[in-house]
């Protein structure tokens, strides 16, 4: 009686040690519950998690009938025959044989062996390791029972393990001989949409067989709701959007939704086969035609840029500042590109790229036009003591500052949009036509409305500059054409922005693309024509008389004699060319007659320009009067003739002062300094 307690204590400690050895996968003892680690390259695809003892969420279960797995790529009977042959030859080396098979075949989860000599061994692959168990315990009982349930070679009833694997079902293939009994265990991939697995999950799915299709979700295992129901072809769900993936089985099983059927697609839907969405189809042929026209216009802008560069020294191009003209063409190119970006399917990149092309093109094109108007206003303003000169480099500096400001503005817009995307906000949204068809488009933001108001403000400022310089006389009527370009952009863009808020949300995507296309060719194309066509037209009219050259900006009778006793009457007694033939005239007479004609034309020009330009001083050359202090008058007159004002004449700046720019009455120009009649005409005028 005294020996009983120590014996019971010894048995208890031995049993606890056995359980600890079986539950600990880190010990290295091949004979008693050893664990072999798998290398990373041979690790199986399955990730099995060890479930601790006392788990009440899962219970082991065995089906009543044996069944073979579906979709299996292994020849299990052949593999079993090969395994029996090797085991019968070398029974003691079973652990190595089982290890090699489990490493080579990731489809297998375990192998069990029982010999006639009562040699037991269970090999399981758990958490990237192979675990060998030699004892029959409560946790491994279901594996040994499955091995004993089959009397001949074949498939055993499927069972669910809840201890070593996470509620995983297994198919078992058993083979027996006189000396050994072997079993292979394969995990079951449960497809809840397949009626074959109805016994595994306790029933079939609840999808509407008439209007929906069941799509399995394998990660659910045997837990109810591992499927989703999507609409069949020709059916749609009225509440679906582009992020809708169907009716989830978990919501159906838990009665979170009451209606999970689809409806027949009406005729208004262009596409009704993409996940139950009544989608508006985009016409590829129409979009291709629009893309071709836009690319052709962009190519024309590039060609005009090359022509402007080659003709930059011509009078019409040079007077219009060819560098600024090139920047206008760059802006036009970018504005044409906005429609090209819309050719592609809506995406995050498109929603970010289109505003960049629009705003940079707008500020480069119309910013350059506004700066040209600003230059006209500065050069031709009246009643100012000093004349300001705006050089081409100054305009380019101003334009660079404007472009840099817009670049910073768009960079802020892009960074904020990307930040919203990181917080699960999308730049895309679903729009619906008046017929109910859905399509995906870029989401309108409040930032866009602020940008549109900024564009309108800039255009109004351009109109203000045009009105302020309305009395300015510009070569080739450039101011009028620039004002017309800005006015057209202001009118069309204002109407377009109003329509985009009121009408566009209910339009078909093809109609929206056509609207953007029409807007571009009602604003950008007229700007291209108004800025460059007059210059090329005037360039073809270079060979014409002086009267024809000024006929575009002075009255027809400007060359009529105003005062019969003026300077025109000085040489009235001279012989006219028409009275004497050229054969009777000597070369000296011809030269003198031509010089007299040049002088008369110079005087005509001076008088006419002074009449049409009130800002030009009527005094001789616009010079200041003599100083009021008598002591400085003689000194001023003494050095007056020695003062020469050097002027830098460029292609875009023909003069530096108003008097010289319009050939004022300060004597004759340098071209005619050698004329003998110049001194006579000046003396007569004084």
Task: Please provide a written account of the structure.
- By secondary structure, this protein is an alpha+beta fold.
- It has four domains: 17-187, 2-Layer Sandwich (Beta-Lactamase), CATH 3.30.450; 195-264, no CATH class; 284-539, Rhodopsin 7-helix transmembrane proteins (Rhopdopsin 7-helix transmembrane proteins, Up-down Bundle); 548-617 and 648-685, no CATH class.
- It is 46% helix and 11% strand.
- The chain contains 19 helices and 15 strands.
- The chain has an eight-stranded antiparallel β-sheet with strand order 1-5-4-3-8-7-6-2, sandwiched between helices. It has a three-stranded antiparallel β-sheet with strand order 9-10-12. A two-stranded antiparallel sheet has the order 11-13.
- Strand 4 and strand 5 (129-133) form a beta hairpin.
- It is elongated, with a radius of gyration of 48 Å.
- Mean pLDDT is 75; it is low at 6-11, 17-56, 545-578, 621-625, 627-633 and 641-686.
- Residues 1-20 form the signal peptide.
- It comes from Popillia japonica.
- The chain crosses the membrane at residues 289-309, 321-344, 356-374, 395-416, 449-468, 480-499, 511-533.
- Residues 662-671 have a biased composition (Polar residues).
- This is 7 transmembrane sweet-taste receptor of 3 GCPR.
Give short descriptive properties of this protein.
686 residues, alpha+beta, Beta-Lactamase, Rhopdopsin 7-helix transmembrane proteins, 4 domains, eight-stranded antiparallel sheet, three-stranded antiparallel sheet, 19 helices, GPCR_3_C, disulfide bond, G-protein coupled receptor, cell projection
């Amino acid at each position: 009686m005294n020996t009983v307690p120590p014996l019971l204590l010894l048995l208890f400690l031995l049993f606890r040690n056995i359980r600890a050895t079986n539950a600990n996968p880190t010990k290295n003892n091949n004979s008693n519950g050893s664990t072999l680690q798998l290398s990373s390259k041979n690790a199986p695809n399955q990730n099995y998690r060890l479930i601790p003892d006392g788990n009440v969420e899962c219970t082991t279960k065995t089906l009543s009938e044996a069944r073979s797995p579906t979709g299996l790529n292994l020849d299990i009977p052949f593999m079993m025959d090969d395994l029996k042959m090797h085991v019968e030859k070398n029974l003691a080396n079973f652990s190595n044989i089982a290890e090699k098979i489990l490493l080579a075949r990731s489809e297998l989860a375990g192998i069990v062996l029982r010999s006639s000599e009562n040699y037991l061994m269970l090999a399981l692959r758990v958490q990237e390791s192979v675990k060998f168990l030699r004892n029959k315990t409560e946790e491994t009982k279901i594996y040994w029972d499955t091995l004993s349930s089959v009397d001949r070679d074949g498939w055993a009833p499927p069972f669910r393990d809840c201890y070593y694997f996470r509620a995983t079902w297994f198919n078992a293939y058993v083979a027996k001989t006189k000396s050994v009994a072997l079993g292979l265990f394969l995990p079951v991939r449960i497809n809840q949409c397949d009626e074959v697995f109805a016994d595994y999950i306790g029933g079939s799915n609840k999808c509407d067989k008439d209007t929906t299709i069941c799509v399995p979700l394998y990660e659910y295992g045997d837990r109810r709701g591992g499927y989703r129901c999507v609409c069949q072809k020709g059916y749609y769900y009225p509440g679906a959007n582009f992020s809708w993936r169907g009716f989830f089985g978990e919501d159906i099983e838990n009665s979170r939704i009451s209606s999970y059927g689809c409806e027949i697609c009406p005729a208004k839907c262009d596409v009704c086969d993409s996940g139950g969405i009544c989608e508006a189809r985009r016409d590829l042929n129409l979009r291709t035609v629009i893309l071709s026209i836009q690319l052709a216009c962009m190519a024309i802008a590039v060609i005009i840029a090359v022509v402007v560069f080659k003709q930059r020294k011509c009078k019409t191009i040079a007077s219009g500042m060819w560098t600024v003209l090139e920047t206008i063409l760059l802006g036009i190119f970018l504005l044409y590109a906005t429609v090209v970006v819309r050719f592609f399917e809506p995406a995050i990149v498109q929603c970010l790229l289109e505003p960049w092309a629009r705003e940079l093109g707008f500020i480069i094109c119309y910013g350059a036009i506004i700066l040209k108007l600003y230059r006209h206003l500065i050069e031709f303003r009246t009643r100012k003591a000093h004349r300001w000169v705006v050089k081409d480099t100054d305009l380019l500096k101003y334009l660079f500052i404007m472009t840099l400001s817009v670049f910073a503005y768009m960079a802020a817009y892009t960074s904020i949009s990307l930040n919203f995307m990181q917080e699960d906000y999308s730049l895309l949204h679903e729009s619906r036509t008046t017929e109910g068809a859905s399509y995906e488009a870029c989401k309108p933001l409040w930032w866009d409305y602020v940008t549109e108001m900024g564009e309108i403000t800039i255009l109004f400022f351009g109109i203000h500059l045009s009105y302020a310089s309305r009395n300015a006389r510009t070569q080739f009527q450039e101011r009028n054409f620039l004002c017309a370009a800005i006015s057209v952009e202001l009118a069309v863009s204002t109407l377009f922005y109003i329509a985009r808020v009121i009408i566009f949300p209910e339009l078909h995507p093809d109609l929206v693309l056509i609207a953007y296309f029409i807007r571009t060719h009602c604003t950008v194309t007229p700007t291209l024509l108004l800025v460059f066509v007059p210059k090329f037209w005037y360039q073809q009219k270079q060979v014409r008389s002086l009267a024809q050259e000024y006929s575009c900006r002075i009255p027809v009778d400007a060359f009529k004699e105003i005062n019969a006793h003026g300077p025109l009457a000085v040489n009235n007694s001279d012989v006219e060319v028409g009275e004497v033939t050229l054969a009777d005239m000597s070369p000296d007479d011809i030269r003198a007659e031509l010089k007299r004609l040049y002088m008369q034309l110079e005087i005509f020009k001076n008088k006419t320009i002074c009449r049409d330009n009130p800002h030009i001083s009527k005094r001789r050359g616009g010079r200041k009067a003599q100083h009021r202090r008598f002591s400085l008058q003689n000194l001023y007159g003494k050095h007056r003739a020695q003062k020469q004002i050097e002027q830098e004449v460029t292609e875009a700046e023909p003069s530096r002062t108003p008097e010289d720019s319009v050939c004022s009455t300060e004597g004759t120009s340098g071209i005619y300094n050698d004329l003998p009649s110049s001194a006579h005409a000046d003396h007569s005028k004084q």
